[in-house]
Every structure is written in structure tokens, then in C-alpha cells.
Amino acid sequence: MPTSAPARPVHVLAAPGDRHDRILSPAALDFLARLAEAFGDRREQLLKERRRQAIRLASGSPLDFPLTSAAVRADPTWRVAAPAPGLEDRRVEITGPPDRRTAVDALNSGARVWMADFADATAPTWDNVIGGQLTLLDAIERRIDFTTPEGKEYRLGEHPATIMVRPRGWHLLEEHLEFDGRPVPAPVVDLGLYFFHCAQRQIDAGHGPYFCLPKLENRYEARLWNDVFVLAQDLLGIPRGTVRATVPIETITAAFEMEEILYELREHSAGLDAGRRDYLFSLIKTFGHRTDFLLPERAQVTTTVPFMRAYTDLLVRTCHKRGAHAIGGMAAHVPGKDPEADAAALAEVRLDKEREAEDGFDGSGVAHPGLVSVCREVFDGVLGERPHQLDRTREDGHVTAADLLSVRRIGGPPTEQGVRSNITVALRYFDAWLRGQGAVALYGLMEDAATAEIARAQIWQWLRHRVIDREDVLRILGEELAAFGARHPWAALDEVRELFERNALAPELPLFFTPDAYTRHLVRIPQVRS
Ligand SMILES: CC(=O)SCCNC(=O)CCNC(=O)[C@H](O)C(C)(C)COP(=O)(O)OP(=O)(O)OC[C@H]1O[C@@H](n2cnc3c(N)ncnc32)[C@H](O)[C@@H]1OP(=O)(O)O
Ligand SMILES: O=CC(=O)O
Ligand SMILES: [Mg+2]
């Protein structure tokens, strides 16, 4: 690295694991130290600003497109960087945790992009964090092939998908690494290690280091990410603008700053995507105290309800105005063993993708290889040989703040089945997460951190507004725990119950379930430092 050594080192507090030294080399730790040193304090300020904004909105301040950045929106001259190699055509993207089996399957799936997800799809155990980095490095070096003990072979194909890495969000820390007496911010770890080991290798292979940046709340956070990219590129002597990053719009406040987010990242932007599950969670979390934001059961908040249509409409308009890809929402169906149910679910996925393609999206996401062909067929139908439809811009009409915020009066009050469904999804997801699995198939759907957040936040919101009784929730909780325990005797029922109580039944809604659950349950630091 060209610049002088940082004053302070990063310490590894975890016990050494298999091949961890390949990732946690002195030079890689030095790289992390520089990033942690440069951005640790700013992260804290931005998290404080998140809390201040949450308080302002909870106490009735209006949410609107910011006046202070009106000039950015009004300036017609700027565009984001042209699509980078491997990201021109994104008609199908697949997401999944960065374990070896998923990696090979995703890279071979026929999707154009694999979003390797350390955020919603990964329970951040230390083994998963470092194991994920080893997976990525091995995939890029084409040393990922393996055979299972049962003899099933995993071989990387000739034309793998382009890799896009989604680091954990800024609200999370990595407790197994310490800098300056404090844990290193988790996104610095996930991005930094991948960047250090793989950026140049990706460039040599004709791509670049590409990222997806989760759970941003405003333009200042986009600016922070941009500065991280600038420093990371400078430190490794990589030309500025090599990095590209897609930002999922998955908070209600970010929806009001889409254009500004593109602007801040314009040199490194790979557009926006519709992170619609976290978006719903954000709506509940941000306006959970207000009766006019009371949401019905999850199944009733479809992609076609007016406020969700307004959100995706704004996303496509904004992206195409600035020459940026607009990527649709991820389809969460997991094909099972019931052909009839699968056919119905696939028809629904097709309809959703058709709507997105017609609305102007340039591609969309799926959570399972079994959905790749549906998504591809739909986008093939609209795009043909063209890699995208960035030329489709919209001058007609516009999306207002009221369009984005008119949530009330969809659906009726939750049924007992709706309450039970949220409780059971949260419990089963918490159990999987505590055992190191960040995404699971439950009742035909992929559930991950975002949907677990929706499930527990809805229970909290319904209790808050007394549309359900606490006694009923406690009864159903007991029944669901008992049923789950009977079928899964190894389940960590006490921890799961405690997680549910802390995150769904507390007087105030915790902002995320993950930071506290991580510290209490996933951190493994031996007494003696390595
Ligand atoms: C923008 C966003 O919303 S990001 C969403 C974040 N969430 C995710 O990324 C979760 C993605 N999905 C998954 O992780 C998985 O589909 C799960 C965990 C939900 C279900 O996985 P499984 O229980 O293994 O499903 P299933 O048994 O149907 O899998 C069949 C095969 O497909 C593979 N597969 C399933 N999902 C994926 C995936 N997303 N990527 C790659 N391969 C996959 C499995 O590895 C398995 O392969 P194998 O035959 O080689 O063993
Ligand atoms: O990250 C994606 C989402 O829907 O949330
Ligand atoms: Mg999300």
C-alpha cells in the first residue's frame, strides 16, 4: 500500500479458524485499520443522525423531499457513470449467502449477477464472515470446486455471474476485530476484506469490485460510502471509478433522497434497486406510533398497493433520468414439492416481473435458482437483445410525498392466522439465525433478516395500537414455541423466546433485532487474544 502505516493496528480477538490466516493477513488487517481510522467517527455521527431523524419523525415532523438538496434534483446535467463491465445487462440477479454451495449454484444459475449477501441472508457468526470471504476469493480464483461426502459435484461453469457483494449495514459491528479499543464497523470488515483480496483480481478478470449497499437512510450515508470507495481505491492504487455500487432503496427516508443518493455516488453508482421488504419494515419502524401507518397482514401489502407502486415508479423515473439501472424487487418464492402450489406461485412471480419490466425496470432479482428462467423470459420479452432500457425516461406526471406516504386503509385488521404467521416466522427465523443460518425457506417463501424484522415489527405495531390483545399474542407465542419445540427438539427455545420478547413485546420497538442479538448470542471471543 502506498501510504504510511496507520498508528494503531486491528487486533483479531477470535480463535484462529481453518484458512482464516489467508484472509486475516497483516496487510489485510492494516487495510482495515486505515478504513476504520478514517470512517469510524463519521459512522457514529451518522448513526446519531439516524436516531435524531427517527425522533423527529415519530414526533410528527413531516417527511418530504429535502429543500437543502433541491438544486441537485433540479440540475438536469449530471449522470451516473456508464455501466461497468459485467453490469451492462442485469436482467436477472440472484441473491444468496456467501457459502460455497450457494456460490457455485448461484454463479452457475444463469443469472447475470450474483449478489453475495453478508446482510439480510447471513447470520454474522465469525465463521460465516470469514468463510464468506474465503468463498469469494476461491470463486474468483476458480478454486471453489468441491465434491460432497455423498458424491455430489460442484463445478464452476465457464460463464459465471458477475459478483456483487453486499456488506453488512453501518448499524452493525464486528466484535471479533478491534481497532483503537473498539469493535470494527461490520461494513468496513465485509467491504474491506473483499476489496483487499479480490478487487485487483476482479479487475484482472475484466470486471471490478462491485457492491450493494444495504439500509441507507439518506444522502450523507451515500457520501460516506463514496468516500470509503475513494480511499479504498487510492490505498490499493486502483483507478477511481472502478468500483460500482447499487443502493437498494429500503428505507422510507431514502425514498425521499433517491436522486441525491445517485448524485453522491455518481462516479461509483450502479443504480438503485427496490429493497421492498426492508422498505416495509422501515415504514412500520419509522411511523409505528401513528395510526395512519397501521399496516395490515404482510400478505395484503402486495407490490400493487398504491404506496408501493408510487415507490417503484419513483425509483425507475429517478434512475433513468440519471442514466442508472433500476433493478426490481427480489422474488421470494422457494419452489417445493407441490406442483400445483409451485405453478400458482410461479404465475405470481411472472406477473410481478412482467409489471416491473413494463414499468421500465432493467432487470430484477430472485432468491432461488428455480426462478431464474421466469425472470429471464419476462425481461427477454421486453428487452430482447438490448442490455437494458435506460433510454425509457418519463416526463409525464410525478410522484408526490403523499403518494409515498398514503399507507392507510389497505386491508383489514389482522386475523388470528396473520398474527400466528408473523409469530411463527419470527421464531423459526430467530432459531435458524442463532444457529448460523441467515436465510431459510418457510412455508414456500424465503425468509431472511428483513422479513423477520417485518414479522416482529408488525406484532409490535398491532399491539401498540391495540388491534390485537397481548394475551392472545402470549397464548399464540406459547403454542407456536411448543409446536416448534416438539418438531425440533434441538431448537434454542429459551433464546428464541427471549429474542421475540425483546424485539416484539417491548414498549419501544428496537431499531433492528440484529445488533443486540449478535452481541448476546453470536460473539465468541476466547479469554486469550490470538
Ligand atoms: C434484495 C434482497 O431481498 S436480498 C435477499 C436476501 N436473501 C437471500 O439472499 C436468500 C436467498 N435464498 C436462499 O438462501 C435459499 O433459497 C433458501 C435458504 C431460502 C432456501 O435454500 P434451500 O433450502 O437449500 O432450498 P432448496 O432445497 O430448494 O434448494 C435447491 C437447490 O438450489 C440451491 N439454491 C437455493 N437458493 C439458492 C440461491 N439463492 N442461490 C444459489 N443457489 C440456491 C440450493 O443450494 C440447492 O442446491 P443443491 O441442489 O446444489 O443442493
Ligand atoms: O434487501 C432487500 C429487501 O427487500 O429488503
Ligand atoms: Mg433488505
TrEMBL record:
Q: Which Pfam families match?
A: MS_C (PF20659), MS_N (PF20656), MS_TIM-barrel (PF01274)
Single GO MF descriptor = malate synthase activity
Q: Which InterPro entries match?
A: Malate_synth_C_sf, Malate_synth_sf, Malate_synthA, Malate_synthase_TIM, MS_C, MS_N, MS_N_TIM-barrel_dom
Q: Which domain of life is it from?
A: Bacteria
Please list the reactions this protein catalyses.
glyoxylate + acetyl-CoA + H2O = (S)-malate + CoA + H(+)
User: Which residue range or ranges hold the Malate synthase N-terminal domain?
Assistant: 12-65
Similarity comment: Belongs to the malate synthase family.
Listed name of the protein: malate synthase
Q: Give the originating organism.
A: Streptomyces racemochromogenes
